[in-house]
Protein: Protein-arginine kinase
Amino acid sequence: MPLERFINQALSSWMRQVGPDSDIVLSSRIRLARNFEKYKFPTLFSHEEAKEIIANLEEVLNTADITKFGQMELLKINDLQPLQKLVLVEKHLISPLLAEDSPYGAVLLTENEEVSIMVNEEDHIRIQCLFPGLQLKEALEAANEIDDWLESRIQYAFDEKHGYLTSCPTNVGTGLRASVMMHLPGLILTQQMNRIIPAINQLGLVVRGIYGEGSEALGNIFQISNQITLGKSEEDICRDLKGVVSQLISQERSAREALRKTSNIQLEDRVFRSFGVLSNSRIIESKEAAKCLSDVQLGIDMGYITNMPKNMLTELMISTQPGFLQQYAGGPLRPHERDIRRAALIRERIKMETDKR
Structure:
């Protein structure tokens, strides 16, 4: 499975699928943090220990396959170019921490990129499963199956009282981070999001931007995830998160319907102005592109635009990121050059769809 397979395609195979409530929920993710019992945590371990952990995982992969999920490819972070690492971050396959600060890190990827296992990041192992739409239960079942398979071959750091032991105390217990990526333009346009976020935080959940902690909510895309990992089961954490997400879906749909009833012509005008910008711009910065893509996706979901694919926002939000733009260009680009290429890529993608009809 060549590295180019993961680097050159903006959309992972799972992203092309339609999941439940996918007009609002772009993806569901489950991440499990685990550590080897006999090694120090990555914050303290030696380079030799880090190499041994990767070697142990390679041996596990060579002796048995997780046939349900297909072949896994091991990519060592030190073997990747900076642009290649950036692309994997932009596709949510590795974290910025693994890309920047883990000289002895690695990632295991399935061909459809539904499963990625980060090695020697903040913990020895971080199992991640990504599913389209609202599918927390399905993603958890997949992650648990991989976890059980690994635990039958690896001795985890586990305490009967505290659960799975992790580098960061906030992950102790289940080691679970469950999150959903949501497109919420209706709640932004009706100015409800600033009221909703504090209420979500009070429920033990956190609202972040598209790339997690410290990132912006570009394109009205928000990541909702749990903060509590100790004292609740994995099923309880996912059920509580799904309950809040279901309420957000209902509120977003109500906000969109309210906009249709009270500001229909203004909303339609906003959608087609943004479509015009994307169709004709020669230079466009990432924030403007994200805003316009959000408007166009809203127009697609509400039926104003009928000749564009349902996953337009997901595809172009990834393929117009700096890493992808430079990967396509074959080397580094200055910010102004990226803005030119971003505009050209979006124009070409829209033209490709309109030419089909």
